[in-house]
């Protein structure tokens, strides 16, 4: 799937601009950004729940507007506007069977039985966790090639969450469909995804593979002899945390020259720490006013 220069306005306000990225079959992408950045709007735009104000969505290099059948290759469930809350799980499945030509009712009923979700259970009677699990089963059974999930783990207890993650990973391996996932739980998202897309200032500001990123970036814990933040940190790094003389600094492009300049500061301690997805999020998206620095 190719997203090419996507634009979206809502109430005359620009929400998304020049959004471009590609997703390979079987690839799991994490979409992260601050609250209100437009993550849900992007998913709804890709799923054709919103009309675009510019750009294209292509599958196999064909626009989904030119061949509307391609829209059945994209699955997105908008929980804010569910129309089937009063239907049973079986009725919901049969509705989606009409919308998705490859929908596998046998797979759906098998998975529902496996996770003890009764076919005749009314959707609105399910707990939030059970709804989340059913939504994933519905998405998988659609056999769409691209599944868009907006905060799929939100509010799930640890056992259901593990079941959902296991189910997704098993089916990605078997069916080779692709996932685009938003989540505020970055620690949970990190081991699942192949790439991270950072949505900032209405566009995709960064497209990372953490393995590649770790080859060029460094996260260091520094202890200096005074309380001043060196110009090197301000100019070349991103300050993640500070407590007294102890700083945690992220350098997105760590070079031998930076290493030499740090050494010249004669730090009491200079220790490398593992880089996480949360570090990348903070380094790119947190502003100075978000910090309360106590010296």
From TrEMBL:
GO terms for molecular function: ATP binding; ATP hydrolysis activity. SUPFAM superfamilies: P-loop containing nucleoside triphosphate hydrolases. InterPro entries: AAA+_ATPase, ABC_transporter-like_ATP-bd, P-loop_NTPase. Transmembrane segments: none annotated. Residues 1-226 form the ABC transporter domain. The keyword Nucleotide-binding applies. Keywords: ATP-binding, Nucleotide-binding. This is ABC transporter ATP-binding protein. It comes from Latilactobacillus sakei (Lactobacillus sakei). The lineage of its organism: Bacteria, Bacillati, Bacillota, Bacilli, Lactobacillales.
């Amino acid at each position: 799937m190719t997203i090419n220069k996507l634009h979206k306005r809502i109430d005359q306000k620009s929400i998304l601009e020049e959004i471009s990225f590609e997703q390979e079959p079987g690839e799991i992408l994490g979409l992260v950004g601050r609250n209100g950045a437009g993550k849900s709007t992007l998913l709804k735009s890709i799923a054709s729940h919103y009309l675009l104000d510019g750009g294209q969505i292509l599958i196999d290099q064909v626009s989904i507007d030119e061949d509307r059948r391609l829209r059945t290759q994209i699955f997105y469930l908008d929980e804010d506007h569910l129309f089937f809350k009063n239907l049973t799980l079986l009725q919901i499945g049969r509705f989606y069977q009409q919308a998705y030509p490859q929908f596998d009712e046998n797979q759906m009923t098998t998975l529902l039985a496996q996770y003890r979700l009764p076919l005749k259970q009314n959707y609105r009677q399910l707990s939030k966790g059970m709804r989340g699990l059913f939504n994933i089963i519905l998405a998988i059974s659609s056999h769409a090639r691209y599944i868009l999930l907006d905060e799929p783990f939100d509010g799930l207890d640890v056992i259901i969450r593990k079941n959902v993650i296991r189910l997704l990973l098993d089916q990605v391996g078997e069916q080779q469909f692709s996932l685009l996932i938003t989540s505020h739980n970055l620690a949970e998202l990190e081991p699942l995804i192949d790439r991270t897309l950072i949505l900032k200032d209405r566009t995709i500001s960064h497209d990372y593979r953490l393995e590649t990123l770790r080859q060029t970036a460094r996260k260091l814990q520094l202890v200096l002899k005074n309380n001043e933040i060196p110009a090197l940190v301000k100019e070349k790094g991103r300050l993640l945390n500070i407590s007294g003389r102890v700083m945690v600094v992220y350098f997105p492009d760590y070079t031998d020259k930076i290493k030499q300049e740090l050494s010249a500061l004669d730090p009491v301690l200079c220790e490398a720490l593992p880089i996480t997805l949360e570090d990348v999020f903070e380094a790119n998206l947190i502003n100075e006013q978000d910090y309360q620095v106590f010296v």
